[in-house]
Amino acid sequence: MSIDVQNQTVLITGANRGIGKAILETAIAQGAKKVYAAVRDPDSVAGLVAEYGDQVVPIAVDLQAPTSIDDAAAVATDVNIVINNAGILRTNDVLSPEVFADYEAEHRTNVLGLLHVAQAFAPVLKANGGGALVQLNSVVSIKSFVDFASYSASKAASYSLTQALRERLAGQHTAVVSVHPGPIKTDMAHTAGLEESADSPAVVAEGIFAALREDRFHVFPDAMAKEFESAYQSYAKSFIEAEIAEST
């Protein structure tokens, strides 16, 4: 199902900076009617509200606080496209005692956060004709990177859930998109020591809306991600995407 962001209402978690901010700006540039900026601190998007006026609506969402997600779904009843961008990264060594707490935090945000968003907003999207759920995963969901192994594990789990959500939500005509960036110029890339090789957040935003228009499940938006895509796409088409094709 092809979805154009023009005249749509979009909700973006983590919309106050980095990739989320670029998605918000691109959505508006491509004609979105309204964007809910779903962030832990609504005051953090005051600059975006000042720039775009009532096209940007701040809404409090913390992926580690399920009630905030439910409350947001009760308010954003007109949403057509939900983009779950927010996530956290920890960088302790896999053999460090601290890695257990790191993974628990990453799992609560990156994995359970996705589940809470999907469960809260699936009925809203269904009521509005189907729409789309977009999940920001990563190339590390396909291959673990030892310097941030716990983050890689959390993203592998979120990618697995994204595949299941694609199949489950197809029945209500909700498109699901899995986005797999490599290093992008964000605070997270700086923390991971990948800033020098990183691409602009805009390439991720543009890739998401192109995928929605072209009815594609996977998005590999940047230079490193495209290297993954060239090796992975045959497997993805044969095994990850084929089951959906056979059931429709």
TrEMBL record:
Gene that encodes it: fabG_8
Keyword Transport found: no
Molecular function as annotated in GO: 3-oxoacyl-[acyl-carrier-protein] reductase (NADPH) activity
Enzyme class at the top of the EC tree: oxidoreductase
Family designation: Belongs to the short-chain dehydrogenases/reductases (SDR) family.
Organism: Stieleria maiorica
Keyword Oxidoreductase: yes
Protein name: 3-oxoacyl-[acyl-carrier-protein] reductase FabG
Keywords noted in UniProt: Oxidoreductase
Xref: PANTHER family: ALCOHOL DEHYDROGENASE
